[in-house]
Fold this sequence. Notes:
The structure holds 2 protein chains of 2 kinds. Chain A is mainly alpha-helical. In chain A, about 65% of the residues lie in helices and about 0% in strands. Chain B has one domain. Chain B is built from 2 helices and 10 strands, in the order E-E-E-E-H-H-E-E-E-E-E-E. In chain B, about 5% of the residues lie in helices and about 35% in strands. Chain B has helices spanning about 110-115, 125-130; strands at about 35-45, 50-60, 65-75, 85-90, 145-155, 165-175, 180-185, 190-195, 195-200, 205-210. By secondary structure, chain B is mainly β. In chain B, strands 1-2-3-4-5-6-7-10 form an 8-stranded antiparallel beta barrel. Chain B has a two-stranded antiparallel sheet with strand order 8-9. The longest helix of chain B is centred in the middle third of the chain and has 8 residues, at about 110-115. Classes of the chains: A mainly alpha, B mainly beta. The interface between A and B is large, with 55 and 44 residues. Chain B: It comes from Citrus sinensis (Sweet orange). Chain B: This is Glucose-induced degradation-like protein.
Amino acid sequence: MPTTTASAVCTTVGNNILLRLTSGERDVKLKALRELKNQIIGNRTKKLSFLKLGAVPAVAGILSDAVSAVDVADNDENDRIVKDIIVQSAAVLGSFACGFEAGVRAVLDAGADILIQRGCLVEEMPLLKSYMEVVDAGARSLKMIYQSKMAPKYDFLQEENMEFLLSLLNNESENVSGLGASIISHSCKTSLEQKLLFDAGVLKRLTSLLGGSLIQRDASLESIATIFKNNPEVVSQFVGPDTGRTLSCIIEIVKDRFARTRLLASLCLIVIRNASPCYLQDVGIKTKLINNLLELLDDPGRVGDEASFAFSSLIAEKEDMQKLAFEVNGVDKLYNHLQKGSLHPRRFEGILLALADMCSKLECCRSRCLSLQVLKLVVDALAHDSSDVRSAACMCLRSVSRSIKFIQNLSAGSFMNETIVIPLVRLLDDTSTAVQVAALGAISNIVVDFTTRRSTFIRLGGVKLLVQLSKSMDSTIRLNALRALRNLIFLAEDKCKEEIFMELTASLLASLICDPEPSVQEQALALVRNLVDGRINSVEYIFAEDGIILDAVGRQLRIASKAEIEIQGMYVLGNVATGKESHKEAVMDQLLLRAENKAQSCIIKFLQSNDSRLRTAAVWAVLNLTCSSSPGSSGRLVKLHDAGIVSHVKNMVNDPCLDVKLRVKTALEQFNSFDDSLILCIFSPAASNNKASTSCLQFLTVRAVGELSHVVDPSSKEEESIANYFRFSMKKNKKKKSTRTVKFCFDVPADSL
Amino acid sequence: MPVRVAESSAPSQVSGAHSEESSPPICSLLTVGQAFSGTQNVSNLQKEEAWRVNVRIQGCDLEHGYLCGTMEALNVPMADTPVVTFWEGEIVDAKNYTFYTGKWEATPEDDIRHWTKFPSFAPLLSRVEADGGKSLDLSNYPYIFMRWKEQYFVNVGTDCGLTIAGFYYVCFSCSDGSINGFYYDPNSRYFFACNSFLTYYCPFQKLELKCANEGRSGFSFSSYELQ
């Protein structure tokens, strides 16, 4: 790019040119136009300068006048100059729009796109040989405008627009047909539009353009890809005798000598393959695509920059493709490019994302990265100027650390804890939200640690930052911060848990459990679940600040409707129920508290859930509450029985899920070990002044968990004496494990015994 | 771990393992964070030893039949401190892994000989002998069979005088979380003459673990999620 920056020079020349543009003489105008065109072509600085001088509206005005002066029927020499003026002014406007966003804006503001369309491409003009130049110039200019995102959206739904488009595509001129294809590539966004275009038969013409000139081929490839993108319906309709021909045509073009064409052909095939996986399944074609894209990385220009993004879209989420890419040394090749250094940010970002995709599922790729020392370069990228690069580096780290085996190797290997943790923690404060979220993703994996990395993270102030982020207005940040905290607390040592809890506070946790976002609620509950696990005194955390966390958990369980939330909540209660008696009783209180308008405990709904994980969690809570070793378990069992929970568990004896079935079996065995009945006390009326006796007289209820062998009717003659003390004998447990009697005695005056 | 010096084994190649907690586990007692404790008995011609063992599950990827965790051996002779190793497990699910090991110098005969030591294996024997158990549907079987291979020492050097050359054949009971295992180490065979035939005897090393609830009354579960 020429470095002429002296605006003085430009102004003088520029003003001169602009002055001549306003001349009444067509010759002068034409000459000025040509000069202007030569000045700005490929020169961004000059474009900007002329833009500021108002060149665009001026040229648009000239074009407008010239178009009005054209008489198609008239074909004499006078029109020669008018045509030239149209050609040159269209070229100037196109040049302003070429790769220069401010130029595009100015051109659109001046309505020049419509002018060009009306002036150069409408009606009979394209059919007249003498107007070919005009048509071509117009098409070229419009194509440049349509390469910009700012170009107006073409309305395919309008019938005349569709007809115009088809006429463009069917035109012999490569610029005109290329324009048609550009319009499709730019404006076709919705599946409806894709279908309209497909139904209008554009594919046939686009396919034939594949055999045309370079411009036509490239434009056609882009358009074909646009029509098929993410549209399995259209792709499936692409069945017929032509399909094989088109596909094999494109496959051939993958070997084209021009890099850009090879890239476009690959992208086209990727789009087709992603929309409808039944195509292009052949291992040969898959390998060819992979190799092609890896080779295209060698291209020093924009093609090389974009090749890695294409590679990502080819392998993302597809383990088979990642495996193939690994087998042709994909990781090594990407690493070699990373090593080159001083990469253009777009290229750097692309390669990092490609590595992230390679390592998203396969352990062999992660190991290869570790052994090649890829991580060092990735960690360096965490401090890059470009936020996209920083974000991509985080995603790469996240992907690579998505395995316990890898995390263990990190600990066991020579890669220092601090080398990764320090730059990541720094990014929690990044100006870009996307970077923060990406960093949180990587951190949440890396803190799942069974060695010292956790303490390094805490020492570096990581917890403070995470807690701060968990209060963010942005729910994505809140969610990801909580994920990281949850993983950090998993199996954490007491001291570590204490530090985290002090930073978090009970009130923040309680409010996060009741967060408006369900996924945040879920993570908050999962965090509490981990918090109360471990050493038994950890259970106390949930009772901090008058038990607000426990209350919040209970509340959420009663109103939640999402299984994931219910599962986490039940596990919280189940975990707390493994604590002391008071803990178990607190859980009972939560479970037996009824929600508004609900007749039964929420746990009954969970026991009947379609989700086996939820049923499992619910049964575990019951198991823990009625643990044989705890003295209060029999009493809790009675309450659970009264609430109808026990019978629900009994009904699950043939649950289709093995895990649930086994837990239920254990639960039933546990229930049977308490084969108890309640004992009645009947007091003599003489003892009516006893504070308990009045209620007892009315209270003659028999509650049994086991089977009753005998019921006493207090009014019957079975009573020997109303002062007697009756006891029901239990039906002995069939397995004869043990028989137990539990007496529930009321205050009995001594003389009635 | 057998109390003998030998070369430490190279880590094995394991296919992709990312721990997603979203799919239901086969058994809630075999999940990350769960702890087991018990003993490993070493009994051979020369001596009998037993040391206490604690195991914790750290990673679980059912889709790939992968499991991993740590094993801590206490009161090991020849070691001053508890010895911790990191192990990786293969779950015999007929999809990712079968009953035949196919590596680590274990022959199919070795495999059958060890699996049959577990009573819960008996009903499966004939199918396994026929096709390695590929046609078995183990998803509803209340026992999970695995192979556990220790990969490296976590807290001691390889010159500690212990070896992790072999691997365990493991049977896990889904109903109560108890684990039984038999250690197989091809290097620790004793050859001797018997009735003029040269034969070998393998020391008998049994691992017996129970689900530990670490001072709680009931079972507590925690979890993490790798993104």
